[in-house]
Sequence to fold (229 residues):
Amino acid sequence: MQNYRKELEVEVTLRTEELKQAFEKIKAASLDTIYRLSMAAEFRDDDTGAHIKRMSLYTAAIARSMGLTEHAIENILYAAPMHDLGKIGIADLILLKPAGLTPAEWEIMKQHTLIGAKILKGSDAEFIRLGEVIALSHHEKWDGSGYPTGLKGIEIPIACRITAIADVFDALTTKRPYKEAFSVEKSLAIIREGRGNHFDPDVVDAFLSIQDEILTIKKQYNEGEKKSQ
Fold:
């Protein structure tokens, strides 16, 4: 009887480990799918998809630095790549314009937040619901001057406050149709200047406290970007 129990315990342990590994494979496949589908929205101005991966990893690193739960960190890792999904509804004439946008064009560009939220609306999956929130509000600012609804301070969901700084840092340090890449030093200075107006001060502090990790992520995926060209 005792031997039978031991055999049963061993079998349960093995089955549990097999299920855990299978679940991890499913999660990895899900994240890969999210990356690839999110690339569709940004394919025109970010054809390598490196931005998507950097964004996702930046947000997870910041969330971890802020002491969020592992569940919350994983959700933002999965949800953040969908932040600009709504760009799929913005015309190339505006999205790829190699100059500043006119006021009318800027109003159209801002609609990508509403489009993205609409695309993601109504899902039963928790991380897609968070993706809807991030798509809608990642351009809100701490002082209330952001869009689309002018949320202020802690009215802005924490995942959106985290995504905002990750998105801006990546935009600053990479080449875009309308600008050359800024240096890391200049980009970090802009982030510091945005503390308390554009960005949540606590998120800025968390971001700056893990500069080495952020720059490691940037270097890793910049190298991947170069290899793919």
Q: What stands out?
A: The chain has a mean pLDDT of 85.
